[in-house]
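To close the section, here is one more complete example, presented without commentary so you can practise reading it yourself. The ligand is pyridoxal-5'-phosphate.
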Amino acid sequence: MTSPVWHPFTQHGLNEPIPQVVRAQGATLHLADGGTLIDAISSWWVTTHGHCHPRIAAAIADQAGRLDQLIFAAYTHAPAEAVARGLIDMAPRTNGQPELAHVFYSDSGSTAVEVALKMALGYWHNLALDGLAQARSRILVLEHSYHGDTIGAMSIGERGVYNAAWQPLLFDVDTIPFPAPGREQACLDALEAACAQHPAAFIVEPLILGAGGMLIYPAHVLTDMAAICRRHGVLFIADEVMTAWGRTGTLFACQQAGVVPDIMAVAKGITGGAIPLAATIATAPIFDAHLSTDRARLFYHSSSYTANAIACAAAAANIAIWREEDVLGRIAVLADGIAVRLAQLALHPAFSNPRQLGTIAAIDLDAPDAGYLSDLAPRLRAFFLEQGILLRPLGNTIYLMPPYCLDTDQLDRLFAALTAAGDRFGVQP
Ligand code: PLP
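Output:
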């Protein structure tokens, strides 16, 4: 019988296999047919410590029996309070002092970004009501960005085939060129010029653009970007949805650049990847611009499941793991293991442009007809599936983003499969 399920980013007309997963543990997915897969992309970048982490699973079970869900408009619960305090405590700081001070919950990376945009425009709107500033509404974005698939998040992302149908709904933004090697100053100059036009905010994926192709840029460029925004009074929004929770080698990517954003969006690994939750964290001036006895100025945003208690309990367990265990140590060991093998793989004639940041690694496969819509990526996916590995290349860019519990044997199998893919699909010189 044909399944009624309509899957995301899936062309059902191609009849690609859709494996059914019945159980997961660590970095391993167990299939209904008895097979196993190594989850080499952390199930879309969310699983940090490993699937079904016992501490997170126990926290979910415990919370589910006590308080599952609570309207969050003017009500609160202990897990939400604890996670907010934990986030403020762990977030990037200026000279040891927390600047990010207020946590607004939502349910996904896209909604965390939408909330960030609404906070930024709300800030300028309310300052304008007080005659303290002109209202501002333009958003600056970085070329090749991805911030999610809701309308606002698509508006600030790279335009292309994946959002062409909704182009009439998307709002205009000003795009700053990506700081590719040798183009860093051009990027910063463009940002400086754009900031002089009084936009509301600049939003960036710090240090690495994910869905845009795992494009890495130096920390000093991020530092300079934030400084330019600050100089012009333009709000600096860091979309840490992919990069947070240790992915880039530090808890948050902004920390490598000494940057404290005005607004920071986090999601994915906030619960260790077990259950949806997101947070948009803002500095006091953003919150204070909405603080009033006037109800017209409250922050008009919510969804039914805002700060779901079970999700918050999972996030609290994740934060406890970060506090009590040497997660950064595990990340460093995995990153070293990836680096050694990636350097070896880069010697393969079919691969070029190896790059790595923390536990994220990417390499380009030089294959015939390697465009985004070619059938290379689906053929690679099927090949890796046969090898017992879940990978989802972006066009001809093959990237890894495994859970931090990946062991040496799994790492070896992963790189053996990459080498085999180079042999099979690569252009041989
Ligand atoms: N922002 C970034 C940088 C992302 O990588 C993603 C998803 O991959 C999103 C936002 C959207 O997150 P979600 O898929 O949870 O809506």
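Once you have examined the tokens, check your reading against these statements. The first helix runs from residue 42 to 45. Residues 45, 108-110, 113, 146-148, 205, 210-211, 239, 241-242, 267 surround pyridoxal-5'-phosphate (CB under 6 Å).
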